[in-house]
Automatic annotation (TrEMBL), chains A, B:
Top-level lineage group: Bacteria
Family: Belongs to the formate--tetrahydrofolate ligase family.
Source organism of this protein record: Grimontia indica
Gene3D superfamilies, alphabetized: Domain 2, N(10)-formyltetrahydrofolate synthetase (3.30.1510.10), Formyltetrahydrofolate synthetase, domain 3 (3.10.410.10), P-loop containing nucleotide triphosphate hydrolases (3.40.50.300)
Biochemical pathway: One-carbon metabolism; tetrahydrofolate interconversion
Protein name: Formate--tetrahydrofolate ligase
Length: 575, 575
């Protein structure tokens, strides 16, 4: 790489940064952020009055004050191979790519999900990128941020309170208290709330019944907020939420309870996209954070669309590997919103492919070309999968110092054999300049003809066939198998007239099968479907294949115990 | 009143307001607020960089950037007679008085509690003053505001999660799961959460135990936030929270669990006071909202102290009538913080005194001088009570159109016979100018010698004698009676070395007795003490006398059902 170019591209701030490998928080704090109105003005052309500031370095975009109709930027989806404990760096690559695009003169922004507060107190670590590819202020992003998750928690729990209150005061809708499926939520890792009895204590305190809590990101309202086109669409979808059944087993909705208006009021600010900046002062729209298993795992449609109205290229990320994240991005988010990606980037690392080839985590530092070769079957499957959507991805090899030339060349061969461009990326160590080659490759694709993006299935395919299609086409499965309960739910969903909805498959992200230990690119397996959940508000049917945890617990030594403020009021222990 | 003066005093905005009697929200929306940095700059001398904006009309004051040491403003406590459904208008009078002081040329601010979100969806109505004496933006204030309550909810529930997690992973502290007194909180009216079982579902999901939820304003953390001097004091108090007992019945604290650091991190922004404005663009510091029964019911010490460092006069309000609110303000907030009021205003209405005299709510429009005379015993008791603290209040008669001259003169006689100044106030209809007479009376007192404010009891009086002192001196009780459980708790609190703490009496606010229907100024009764709760973090002992509801329920027809956004995105039905 050309050193002189480096010097030009590195911003005044980046030169003074702690060396690569310094803690993320040290790097983040070494950068002097631009006032957020300056980011908005210089990078998005958005005037200060159209921002709703939250402090000096965060804001919401007031969509009533912003014209997003005069431009339609290109959309780049960042996805990855099957995740392993080795780490792939999808968020880091998304941020690095946006910085790199700006560095080569393209007006680009990055759209990401908001992290959940609860898990920060469990296992150490935030979610704002890393190294020299971060979104800041990372402390705020990982804590209360701009209050969106709290608003979702409030709206969710208001509906829950209205349900129990309805039953308490006479149950006019004839709700079956045993079949209330709407639980409560909290943005906290709290296993003791998974299964609860509520309404105890006597007649003054409601109707006793079994219930429980999920973490806020698992709320259907989170999925709804991320799929809504605007406030009216949000309210319509909130009204469609099925909260349980009546005594005739008919679905009862939030609209039947009259709850959707007040819920929308609680969400009126939360639906406005949030703006922060990367370490290189490029715009990062961070908005919404639905679970990637029981929901679709990408940031809000409103944020993506806003970013496309304000910058020429928008880099966005979908959760987990391409089999789950990219599939849901296209088959759910794109289908519902009308958005289409113009290019895709598939992130991999030598280390992760080594793990896919069977190497243990503590052996990843040793060169092992054979393991990489074996593991690259996983990469190959993901590239082929993306091609089924009509997208040949640019493969970004997120470089580690331990990577060997032989290992790298094996990966490159696989990519080239499938017609995919492949580039190394060093944004973690170098910031945007480190991802310049990826950015150039992406730009070449964007400058060419738009891809003909295809859904994997059409709306009118029955739900079971949709699941079968995803399993056989993407996971390499031979078939799917519905257990008796799921079969019954399937019939019911069709009878109720929801057969046209897309499916959202909740399975382990660590394997193409339902068994996390099956690495590489297994095939011929059967995907077991245990349960179907109708998310009538969000607008998809969740197919649960294996255990899905909707309320995490804290570990034996939670990070919370070492988190505090130092004498200067700076957070220690959170990252 | 002088019309010409009126014209001068009314701001440009107020002249264009809807007529008195228009809905509060219409009046509020008719005023064009100043940008909050302008309020800060012009009214507080605080520069924009020392604000943490939340939108354009709300901010937090960044106390690290503000010098509050060069001034010590005078403090005016607004309190009231015993509350009735007729309404007294304590918040309205506090706001009106601050506006009136500014109108007569005094630099004044108002310090109030933040309202709770949950109750807004129960019975219609917000809490930001009313008529032409309001704090704006009232919608935000009544919903998520600047996120303080959500932060308190998170910090509270993190501690709860850490407790259950500690038990789950082996219970090193030997916590007695049956004696965990730390519950969870939610800012919602949800009766079904009052009594719950948590930890059900098998060994992977924690230890089953009885527990429940309180509304967030009832959290000890809310009381702590409002009493803390600064961040360090906050953390110290959080660490002192007693969360339950171990198997040897020894108290276990949040510090024993190592939770106070992470809790402080969650509260790091919440401790900064919030700034909004009155309809007349005067500074309103709205911060904290502890329950007025099981806590001390006034805004944060940090907000009061900040306001005193920035304006010459600070008007603040305490919850319920003077027997509860003013007593706790002085015996708890002032004792702990070192603050002292320089004057007090006691709010009453003709209608409320009529109710105290036995008139039913639907008969209040009729003139009834006898009832007023009878009811003014209540007013008399409150004035005498305030004098026991060394404060002769200015009595503000909050005028209603139905008030009769005879009725008014009865009230005035009572006040004058006790040496108290009394003035009529019409801020609800007229804004600040309407409370000019009260403001002048207050100013006269402030210009005179500072009162010698006395606590009702000294620290070293035993807890039971403290309660007895309050009951006999203020409530007119003959004695207090501890039931067996409370007696046991009393002994234990003394044994544990907490006998020096002040007491916080939780009883009905509607009577001097523990029986809400006993109006006027009853005496000779016995105050029953049912339970003592040691709030070691907040630093007081709660004496529960009668039923105390720490988690409200929703009514049969909750306001939530008629709350929504109109086509312009404006909230309807909330106020």
């Amino acid at each position: 790489m050309n050193n002189q170019n480096n010097t030009v591209l590195v911003t005044e701030n980046m030169t003074a940064l702690p060396p690569p490998g310094a803690p993320d928080i040290e790097i983040a704090r070494a950068v002097k952020p631009w006032p957020i109105f300056e980011v908005a003005q210089r990078k998005l052309g958005v005037a200060a009055h159209a921002l709703i500031p939250f402090g000096h370095y965060k804001a919401k975009l007031d969509l009533s004050q912003i014209d997003t109709t005069s431009k339609v930027g290109k959309l780049v989806l960042v996805t990855a191979i099957t995740p392993t404990p080795a780490g792939e760096g999808k968020t880091t690559t998304s941020i690095g790519l946006a910085d790199a695009l700006n560095a080569i003169g393209v007006s680009a922004s990055v759209c990401l999900r908001e992290p959940s507060l609860g898990p920060c107190f469990g296992v150490k670590g935030g979610a704002a990128g890393g190294g020299r590819a971060q979104a800041i202020p990372m402390e705020d992003l990982n804590l209360h941020f701009n209050g969106d998750f709290h608003a979702i928690t409030s709206a969710h729990n208001l509906l829950a309170a209205l349900i129990d209150n309805h039953i308490h005061w006479g149950n006019e809708l004839n709700l079956d208290a045993r079949k209330v499926s709407w639980r409560r939520v909290m943005d906290m890792n709290d296993r003791a709330l998974r299964h609860t009895l509520v309404g105890l204590g006597g007649p003054a305190h409601g109707q006793p019944r079994e219930s429980g809590f999920d973490i806020t990101v698992a709320s259907e309202i989170m999925a709804i907020l991320c799929l809504a086109e605007d406030r009216k669409d949000l309210q319509r979808r909130l009204g469609n939420i099925i909260i349980g059944r009546d005594r005739d087993n008919k679905p009862v909705t939030a609209r039947d309870l009259g709850a959707e208006g007040a819920m929308t009021v609680l969400l009126k600010d939360a639906i406005q996209p949030n703006l922060i900046q990367t370490l290189e002062h490029n715009p990062a729209l961070i908005h919404g954070g639905p679970f990637a298993n029981i929901a679709h795992g990408c940031n809000s449609v409103m944020a993506t669309r806003t970013a496309m109205g304000l910058t020429d290229v928008v880099v966005t990320e979908a959760g987990f590997g391409a089999d789950l994240g990219a599939e849901k991005f296209i088959d759910i988010k794109c289908r519902i919103s009308g958005l289409r990606p113009d290019a895709a980037v598939l992130v991999c690392t030598v280390r992760a492919l080594k793990m896919q080839g069977g190497v243990a985590k503590d052996k990843l530092d040793s060169v092992d070309a054979d393991a990489v070769k074996l593991g690259s079957a996983n990469l190959k499957r993901h590239i082929e999968n993306m091609q089924k959507f009509g997208l040949t991805p640019v493969v970004a090899i997120n470089r580690f110092p331990t990577d060997d030339a032989k290992e790298l060349s094996i990966i490159k061969e696989v990519c080239l054999s499938l017609g995919a461009r492949v580039e190394e990326a060093q944004h973690w160590a170098e910031g945007g300049v480190g991802a310049k080659a990826v950015a150039e490759a992406v730009k070449t694709i964007l400058d060419g003809e738009a891809p003909d993006v295809q859904f994997l299935y059409e709306d009118d395919l029955p739900i079971d066939d949709k699941i079968r299609k995803v399993a056989t086409a993407l996971y390499g499965a031979e078939d799917v198998q519905f257990n008796i309960a799921a079969q019954k739910q399937l019939d019911e969903i069709h009878q109720l007239g929801y057969g046209h909805l897309p499916v959202c498959i909740a399975k382990t992200p660590y394997s193409f099968t339902s068994e996390p230990s099956e690495l590489g690119a297994p095939s011929g397996h059967i995907l077991p479907v245990r349960e179907l959940r109708l998310m009538a508000g969000a607008g998809f049917v969740v197919a649960i294949c294996g255990d899905v945890m909707t309320m995490p617990g804290l570990p034996r030594k939670p990070a919370a115990l070492s988190i505090s403020l130092d004498d200067d009021g700076e957070i220690v222990g959170l990252f």
